[in-house]
């Protein structure tokens, strides 16, 4: 019993403990003021305890997140197609997959498409979400509750269920959207096949994603708006500012970090969106609505070029990491300001 | 006078229109599910199904493997949530209550892991699972879902634990409780609401997961409901009534959870996502 705690300390935190001893942090200082029984337990075990408590979480994360990440990189340097898969062959082929991907016209077309898709979606989500958030702040209690209910319904819909519902809404023959457009006088839309063209499919996907994402932005903006003291608005109005001036000179500067952080989050989410894009039309028609995650999946799994698919996915992850680091920079900045 | 009436009315009008925009797809799903076939393929859509029928639900429920898949989904989801709660509880206690070297690094890792691009990693996950001969098994799904919800669980539980006054724990220890006892008897009961809402969010994530099960479990009786739902339409031709009934059945648990949790949802997600 006496030996065990010693070993624990030497494990993860051992080296650090030797060099000059632990600094008296707030936690310890407070403990020290305590009475006998509490102090008694302040031992080597105490110093090792946090690491011990973190061990299970660290272990499963390394095993189930770290390993696939590493495996992904390893696979991207292998020639791995149906034959190698079945025979369990490992054929290293250096950077061939990357060379093949980066010189492939399709890859760049899909990348450009993904960037445009992300930009359009995020812009729509942020503008629409901000407007809905502002509206929530302005509404009376009853109407706010009504709108919140609608937003929660959309937000809570499971993505897969929402996807099938949108397929039904936009159905060619019996879809309510085509019927409405026809009834409103746009008769050429009566039997329009939304999933037959690239842009019309993207339109449905975008609508689905925006519909699904706006509630998050709107609720968060509304929550942030309620923290702005009413005096600020009043002062601005007294100085003769109109609605737009109040927004751009009072609300926007205060919520700038919020907008930046949310925008980056949405960029990351839309960029890696798989379910909506894949489930609604499997990247079709004619592979024209594949974005990078779907492209990696179809190349890797669908066409059984696993190595190639892994290379595409590594490249996608690199782009995501760049986006995430920008997000963290924004969040860190925001922390300083708060 | 007229102008002021207008400026008072327009936000409400817009709110109603927005409500319709956001709620209509959900309404349309549920109402289609109750319509008889004649109403679904009517030339003029039937907006209120007066002659409601449960026939579509019947079709959905009696589809091949339906109850097996319900059981699969529940097993995988509950397994993942319970495992991640246990693991997260100890980790978040350390993060909330203790000061140690590397704590900041762990917190950043948790945030990073929360954004892990799982959707893009499915090929590697497929290879790993296949090399272990565990395709078409619920075990890898459960384990991966557990890790998917783990960062969020750690992050929110850490907040809930930090909110329990340290003095409560200390006074219990002064009264002779050990640290473990103090945690189990004082902190843990106070965490109940936090555990509840955290696990429900984990539930939603795991319940909805699609890309991984799509690649790992091809065998019909080893799938989960999301995968079944996307294939449902193909399997049933254009039986939109049954498809919508299936979607409704799939969505109901999640909608209920969300309606109950709405307030916490906003706070929790804001704290986790934006405030850092």
UniProtKB/TrEMBL annotation, chain A:
One of its GO terms (cellular component) is plasma membrane. The chain crosses the membrane at residues 49-70, 115-136, 145-169, 202-225, 246-271, 306-328. Keywords: Cell membrane, Membrane, Transmembrane, Transmembrane helix, Transport. It holds the Pfam family BPD_transp_1. It is found in: Cell membrane. InterPro entries: MetI-like, MetI-like_sf, UgpAE/MalFG_permease. Residues 11-20 have a biased composition (Gly residues). Residues 27-40 have a biased composition (Basic residues). Residues 1-40 are annotated as: Disordered. It is a multi-pass membrane protein. GO terms for biological process: transmembrane transport. Residues 111-327 form the ABC transmembrane type-1 domain. Gene3D superfamilies: MetI-like. Belongs to the binding-protein-dependent transport system permease family. This is Sugar ABC transporter permease. The lineage of its organism: Bacteria, Bacillati, Actinomycetota, Actinomycetes, Kitasatosporales.
Automatic annotation (TrEMBL), chain B:
This is Sugar ABC transporter permease. PANTHER family: INNER MEMBRANE ABC TRANSPORTER PERMEASE PROTEIN YCJP, MALTOSE TRANSPORT SYSTEM PERMEASE-RELATED. It is a multi-pass membrane protein. It is found in: Cell membrane. It holds the Pfam family BPD_transp_1. CDD domains: TM_PBP2 (cd06261). Signal peptide: none annotated. Keywords: Cell membrane, Membrane, Transmembrane, Transmembrane helix, Transport. It comes from the Bacteria. Belongs to the binding-protein-dependent transport system permease family. Its main location: membrane. GO terms for cellular component: plasma membrane. GO terms for biological process: transmembrane transport. The chain crosses the membrane at residues 12-30, 74-95, 107-129, 141-161, 182-207, 240-261. Residues 70-261 form the ABC transmembrane type-1 domain.
